[in-house]
Amino acid sequence: MSHLGAMLLALSVLAPLQAQSFDTSGTANLTGPYLFRYVNFFNDEYGNLTESCMLTGVMSFDGQGHYTLSNTQLFDSLGSTTGYCAALGGGTYGVESNGMAQFDNPMYPATLFGAVSQPVIIASSTEDFYFDLFIAIEAPASGVSNSTLSGSFTGGTLDYFNASLSTARQGYFTLTADGKGNIAAFKLNGSAANVNSGDSLTQSVAASTYALSGTQGGTWNIPGSDNDTQILSGTKTLYVSADGNWILGGSPSGSDMIFGFLAPTKTASNAFLDGTYYLAGMVNNSNILLGAYYGSINTNGNGDLIEHQRYDYVVPEVTYDYTTYTPVTIGANGSYFDGSTYTYLVSGNGNGLISVGSNSTFGLTVAMRAAPVTATSSVWIDPVAIINSANYTPITNSYAPGEMVSLYGSFGVSLDVDQKIPVPTSLDGVYVYVNGHAAPVLLVSPNQINVLIPYEIAGDGFATFQVDANNSKSNSVTVYVADTAPGIFTLAENGLGLSAVLHADYSLVNDQHPAQPGEVVLLFMEGLGGVTPPVLDGAPGGSQNDVNEYDQDELSVALDDGVDQLAPADIDFAGLAPGFAGLYQVNFALPTAGLANGDVSIVFGSNEATSEMSTIAVSGFQQSSARKPSARRAVLPIRHAHTRGARRRALPDRETR
Question: Which of 79, 182, 352, 568 has the most neighbouring CB atoms within 10 Å?
């Protein structure tokens, strides 16, 4: 940090309007003490770090939305009397039924956005432009001893030593603790900006000792002093979770972060990663400068990670939604290196995932599987399973007016698909309300309902969904709202691979009939928000219903071949596809040069979001073949703009200092 149309009368009769608000139904489930570590770095306008802060200790939750701090240790690289770091003593919090959460930042008048999946909490202050990361683990209910830490643990670490990018360091490791206070020697793989030109290196970490007692953790004593030539050395604060499966720590006089979990004891594979995972992390390199984020991942055990990050660039100050696709192949030891940028590490039970940067990309991402939620009614929406119908992005992503979404759960109705235009707001006795507005219903089935989000939610910070199936009401599920949430339809109907793109003669663009340099093609997608002139909910597009952000010159398309710089394309039209409800069409002209041939990624940007998940087949360019772009390239779109904290904070107002 340097110093986001009128409603039909018929719909108003069907359901009373409800004020949109943040769901706090999960707040009561977060109680008791947690051991936490919070790190934050201040910077100047050029991205140079100027101060680092660390706060660690016990955060106790009362189950009613308030927390207090105790046994804290504070570090400020500028000193305790001259810096900006201070423990605020306590604050408020709120947790949704799906685990998504907000917390008062324990140091500053800011909001931590993240998630709870017991026994772990992760978060970052993305809406306030802090370069920070918060992690907490559930504290043991009774005193611990050295026997609490036993077995092999896989972990990752990130540090900007002495608050400097020039001494950034990171690494990953597997350590073995004997339950008696001893950790065997191990190898750490990582990099340090000021060692070996920032290239990958291996550090031999000598045998070390640890001491645990009471309920508030202990220390890990690693041979050698904490200095800028060793990635892991010196005395560290060490916390072990109540269940003994997670570790957290770092220097008491520094702003490093160490996090780990029990390593796999059996042969690992992609099948270990299955479900929805919440994540938070921070990263910097020559392209990203300083970025922090929270978000989530959807995956089904096949190695395809569909990822959302609520990305906070602190230079320049921009916050937006970034959705991307990362393929992984988890090895037998639970790790995977993507060949250039990140190493992925999975926990023994598949509930945790860490990624650590490589070479000059310094980053640490921590993810944990969302806790299962028990159905609370006969008609029930799975609170982690409302997704963009085009690209299947996970629950933390924003949702836009006019977007087609799929709700999964238990609905007690038979399969039926709407055949009418305009799309009606009920189908076989099923209604879906979004902030009290009846949504056009496209499909109903025992476990899935597809709807169009009403345009009337524009300007709201949250969207709350509820299903009414033949007078039986479901639970309510709340998500975040933005003006746009781009999702591209694909031929495989899973958000991945070749996009739904047509040539000007309406023939399909594919590997057999690729697009050519300078050609104008038609891309089909959703989530582009309001249009001009506006249309009623469920109504088809006419001949010229332009996307509002297209009229405002706030959309962008670029192509990424993984070899060259991004190649910008010229947009000729963006609006509702004529004759279709909820389907958007974007016509763009391919660049005439600067690409390799093959399947290249489409990077679609709006004022609020960037999506880089699907591809388009191209040929006729000078280079012979494209390669898959590096995972999580994290493109900073040109036109993003964001007002600090706009429409996102739902906690009570906090007094600033």
Answer: 352
Phi-psi category of residue 197: left, alpha or beta, with phi > 0 → left and psi -120 to 50 → alpha: left
Q: Which amino acid is at 253?
A: S
Global pTM reads 0.93
Q: Is the pLDDT of residue 627 over 70?
A: no
pLDDT digits 0-9 by tens, 517-560: 999 999 999 999 999 999 999 999 988 889 988 888 899 999 99
Strand partners for 611: 323, 604
Asked if residues 105 and 652 have their Cβ atoms less than 8 Å apart, the reply is no
Rg from Cα positions in the chain: 25
pLDDT at 6: 23
**Could you tell me which residues come within 8 angstroms of residue 197 by beta carbon, excluding any fewer than 6 positions away?**
none
Confidence of residue 224 (pLDDT cuts 50, 70, 90): confident
Element (H, E) at 416: strand 416-417
Residue 387 burial (CB < 10 Å; 0-12/13-18/19+)? buried
Residue 440 near residue 425, CB atoms below 8 Å: yes
494: left (phi over 0), alpha (psi -120 to 50) or beta: alpha
Show the tokens assigned to 425: 């707001």
How far is it, in rounded angstroms, from Cα 520 to Cα 522? 7
Q: Which of 212, 205, 292, 282 is nearest to 248 (CA)?
A: 212
451 and 444 in contact (C-beta within 8 Å)? no
Asked if 375-480 and 487-618 have one fold, the answer is yes
CA distance 173 to 204: 10
What is the spatial distance between Cα 105 and Cα 90, in angstroms, rounded to a whole number? Answer: 9
Half-sphere exposure of 341 (CA within 13 A, CB side): 19
C-alpha distances in angstroms, 411 versus 381, 447, 478, 559?
8, 6, 18, 41
CB 614 within 8 A of CB 601: yes
Nearest 5 degrees, angle CA 482-CA 291-CA 164? 160
Fold of domain 487-618: Immunoglobulin-like (2.60.40)
Eight-class DSSP state of 641: -
d(CA 564, CA 470): 55
User: From the centroid of its chain, how far is CA 207?
Assistant: 36
Q: Determine whether domain 375-480 maps to CATH 3.40.190.10.
A: no
Taking only the tens place, the pLDDT of each residue in 235-290 is 999 999 999 999 999 999 999 999 999 999 999 999 999 999 999 999 998 766 78
End-to-end CA distance of the chain: 16
Cα–Cα dist 419/409, whole Å: 23
pLDDT at 549: 87
The full set of domain ranges for the chain reads 31-141+275-299+310-331, 375-480, 487-618
Strand duo 497-498 + 614-618: pairing: parallel
Cβ atoms of residues 391 and 611 within 8 Å: yes
For 35-88, what is each residue's pLDDT tens digit?
999 999 999 988 899 999 999 999 999 999 999 999 999 999 999 777 889 999
User: What span, in angstroms and rounded, lies between the C-alpha atoms of 461 and 578?
Assistant: 30
Cα separation, 590 vs 568, whole angstroms = 8
Spell out the residues 6+ positions from residue 92 whose beta carbon is closer than 8 angstroms to its own.
Answer: 65, 66, 67, 103, 104, 651, 652, 654
What pLDDT does 288 receive?
67
Confidence of residue 16 (pLDDT cuts 50, 70, 90): very low
Predicted pLDDT at 637: 45
Percent with pLDDT over 90 in the chain: 82
- Section 215-234 average pLDDT: 89
Residue type, 284: N
